[in-house]
Amino acid sequence: MPAISFQSVSKAYPSSRGPSGGTFLALDQVSLDIAQGEFFGLLGPNGAGKTTLITLLAGLAKATSGRASVMGHDVHTDFAAARHALGVVPQELVFDPFFNVREALVFQSGYFGVRHNDAWIDELLESLGLADKANVNMRALSGGMKRRVLVALALVHKPPVIVLDEPTAGVDVELRQTLWAFIAKLNKQGHTVLLTTHYLEEAEALCGRIAMLKAGKVVALDSTSALLSSASGNVLRCAIDGDLPASLQALARVTGRVVQLPAKDALTIENYLSQLRAAGLAVHDIEIRRPDLEDVFLQVMQRAGHDERSGA
Amino acid sequence: MTGWQMLFYKEVMRFWRVAAQTITGPVLTAMLYLLVFGQALESHVKVYDNVSYTAFLVPGLAMMSLLQNAFANSSSSLIASKVMGNMVFLLLTPLSPWHWFVAYVGAAVVRGLVVGLGVLAVALIFAVPPLTQPLWAIAFAVLGAALMGALGVVAGLWSEKFDHLAAFQSFVVMPMTFLSGVFYSIHSLPPFWQTVSQFNPFFYMIDGFRYGFFGASDLSPWLSLGVVGGATVAVGLWALLLLRMGYKIRS
Predict the structure, then answer these.
(1) In a domain, A267, yes or no
(2) Of A29, A62, B98, B143, which one's alpha carbon is 20 to 30 angstroms from that of A311?
(3) What is the pLDDT of residues B158-214, one digit of tens each?
């Protein structure tokens, strides 16, 4: 029995969310099984349907067609059992301003019918670096601390399946490390983890398997190692002083002065360098490296975009 | 404590934490009504023999405060958690629509009764109305609070922002409570307005509650009980249906 299963799931929203008239198809026949104990990554650009998929799983929205289940429980017809098995860390930084951290955790625990949960609540507070904030009102916490509380709230009923929707968006390095150490520990203990993130280095480091979504469709689904080895060629990484020539702009990943270009062979690299020299740019810190997940992601998205345009 | 009991407890704690705003404030407002209307009209208006106007006012004001606060509790809690986004914590739980309903309406009844009792207690300074039929008073207080708590659930789910809820309160709840016979007997109204009042369920709540105190009312308490009970069931089913649909809270 998979921990999470999506079977031909589609979700259409009314036209106001779509580009023009009719309905906007946020998810289009998505089928996906995530085995128990997996650390699974769900990647895609903004608007690809990642959060919609999670909202369907969590029962926050209803699929237009298809079926989703958690630990074999249909999220619609057997919603109580499905939600007992699921802990979701929402993307939005939301909180109840009336209560402190411990009270919020006790309430959330109680909603799931879990009583006498103090030992686990204390462990969560300790593991997430919240022990000294237990009696602080939620309003008084920093953004990073609120994010930690969201994680604790999702885990308070000890769900076997944990969903993290961009949990490290806008948080500091210390929280990232604390969070990933804790989640990795839970994963080792057998919890299934579904992660959506825009930080691809995190997904590469943590996820055993990855699905990539684009425009509501799964465009890649494989183990992280298989995805990485599927990337063709190498990557030329260098720093330049000035603007990249127009001929290279569509191919390059540019971060400030650093430019990264896909390079399948030595001839391509020579060609890039000659174009940069011809443009009068000084090239520094030249490095040839293996593609990382971000390169794979860009290749998959470009290929999917090309397939879409050609009607494949 | 089961899931719905925890939600009920949380909802009670939510208003109790800000008791100055949710309990003391409404009690003080009712006292101002009592002071102003009682003092101004005491010597001019007589509704029942042997009952002063101020004493006549007390049950009506207590019931009005009870009803308004029961409505305010469920409606404001729902709209606040929708607007602030923290409703997601509840939406992720296995609580059923029935659990939500019992917890929100239950907490609304508690707040309504606490405010109603507060008004009655402080009003004793001004006048002591007799309590001749306490079971009738309790029945109408609980049913009225439940009806308004359920209506608050409907309004809270329907509202998308605080302005919507304020409009609901200003254009539905306030006129209906003020035109329910709190300050007068409907027999003192012209025939047209007497007829209009009979379409106002709040009138039956106030009249039935007052019967519990004075043993006298504009209508038979059984008729009022039937109307209030029927309205409570109808609005309760409406609220339950909206919760079951996930109206404006699940897409």
Answers:
(1) yes
(2) A62
(3) 999 999 999 998 999 888 888 888 888 888 888 888 888 889 999 999 999 999 999
- Distance (Å, whole) CA B33 – CA B27: 10
Structure tokens at A241: 């002083």
Per CB-CB distance under 8 Å, the chain A contacts of B9 are 110
Per-residue confidence (pLDDT) for residue A292, from 0 to 100: 87
Please indicate, yes or no, whether residues A45 and A152 belong to a single structural domain of this protein: yes
**pLDDT for A311 beyond 80:** no
More confident residue, B188 or B94: B94
Residues of B with CB under 8 A from a CB of A: 1-3, 5-7, 9-10, 13-14, 17-18, 81, 84-86, 88-96, 246, 250-251
Contacts of A150 in chain B (CB under 8 A): none
Cβ of A110 within 8 Å of Cβ of B5? The answer is yes
Q: A204: domain CATH number? A: 3.40.50.300
CB–CB contact B92 A95 (8 Å): no
Residues A147 and A275 in one domain: no
> What is the Cα–Cα distance from B68 to B176, expressed in whole angstroms?
10
DSSP type of residue A137: B
Q: Identify the band that residue B73 occupies on the pLDDT scale cut at 50, 70 and 90.
A: very high
Boundaries of domain holding B50: 3-245
- If one counts the domains in chain B, the total is 1
Q: Do B94 and A115 touch (CB under 8 A)?
A: no
What is the complex's ipTM, to 2 decimals? 0.89
Tally of domains within chain A: 2
Could you tell me the two tokens for B5? Answer: 């009991």
Residue A311 lies in a domain: no
Please answer yes or no on whether B6 and A80 come within 8 Å at the CB atom: no
Q: β-strands A161-165, A23-34: how paired? A: unpaired
Residues of A with Cβ-Cβ distance to B7 under 8 angstroms: 107, 110-111
A155 lies in the same domain as A85: yes
CA A18 to CA A24: how far, in whole Å? 4
Per the structure, the complete domain to which residue A202 belongs is given by 4-228
In a domain, B55, yes or no: yes
Mean pLDDT of A212-231: 92
Residues A109 and A244 in one domain: no
CA distances from A119 to A114, A125, B15 (A): 12, 10, 28
In the numeric block, which tokens belong to residue B231? 């309205």
Claim to verify: residue A93 and residue A202 sit in the same structural domain: yes
